[in-house]
Amino acid sequence: MVFSSILFLLFFLPALFLLYFCIPKRFRAVRNLVLLAFSLLFYACGGTDYLPILLSSIIVNYLCGLLTAQERPTALRRIGLWAAVAFGLGMLAWFKYAGFFISNLRTLGLDIAVPQIVLPIGISFFTFQGLSYVIDVYRSHAACQRNPFYVALYVALFPQLVAGPIVRYSTVDREITRRDESLPEFSQGVMRFLFGLGKKMLLANAMAEIADGVFALSPLLLTASQAWIGAIAYTFQIYFDFSAYSDMAIGLGRMFGFHFEENFNYPYVSRSVNEFWRRWHISLSTWFRDYVYIPLGGSRCSRGRNIFNLAAVWLLTGLWHGANWTFVLWGGWFLLLLLGEKFLWGGVLERLPAPVRHVYSMAAVILSWVLFRSASLAYARGYLAAMFGFGGGGLDGHSVYLLLEYWPEWIACFAAALPVKDWLQKKLSRRETLPAALVREWAPKLAALILLGLSYMKLASGSFNPFIYFQF
To answer: Each residue of 289-304: pLDDT tens digit?
Structure first.
């Protein structure tokens, strides 16, 4: 089940609202049980075979959290910490990487059967959340939760369960037991959800049609214009698809009184790759910073050690996204760019005009998405060759068709990737007139309703694509 589906919008969510809000606020524990039950049902709709894996993760992290509580002996706390790490990373190693590593061993001549393993939905996200809970308890950054149902609700909460954002326990621990649902918060959550739904249905899916069509072609058949159009379309698709899910998750959380942190901050306005990663998938970046980079020594060490720490983070970041050499190379690409900005050309970059810095950043990001989207290194190499004209051809008829057929979506994507909404809000906030106040109050609500209508029309017509990050 996904947020942008008839089943979720017309059946699952209304049923949850009806049961949840019929229970008085003073019965917080009952409301939590309803929310937990629906969260597990939501996950089970993706495949009941995956549910025991999620439940096992919850149980192990709950027990390890008890072992790492502050009053426990140091040796026992360490056992609890490393047991959680071993279990979480062991699950990822088996379900996500076993087939990849065994396939590579076969290429070296070893006669080993490749296991047919189905990747559980969202395993990277709920594994990282469980680990962050145990690590934060061990570090005394969060109190140990004695109630197993509260740990289960934290890990399995359906808005962010399968595609993030990765929520820290310290962000929601108080709200699990003492949140205050209100009509204004619910209204804000609905608007945020509808803006995310519009991003997904109207922008991401349209760009997916272009990107999927281009990337389905052999690189030998691509002209340079086709290759660039496909790469830019995918650049928009992955942003609007993933940020749409985050918007919808944050909106759903607010409806039920939870406040998740932002996961995107207009990453395509960045003027350096470093800035891009401060704005893109913020919850993952900060997770690796706090739980991998800093414990390894961060930047407070020798240059050689710092390079090693960064390399470890970006190797893991690439592998986190998938078991394929394209993802490893994708992580390596960003490692080289970030090292270059840190030690080589960062000072020169800062003195360049802002438009030049922006072009540099977006070129680096677009090329990275080609690696990310390609099924193999050979395909990526051929696609990049086509982008730089080695396949020949100028602006061909198919490229013109893709630009003209989708011209409203192209314009909307460019506009939506910029902080236009923030600019308008700042301008309106400076005006104290009644018309400006009415626009500030009612324009977002009207826009959300329009997006709902347009999105529902797309849904009813069968125009649907799953979220990209479900595969992670």
So the answer is: 999 999 999 888 899 9
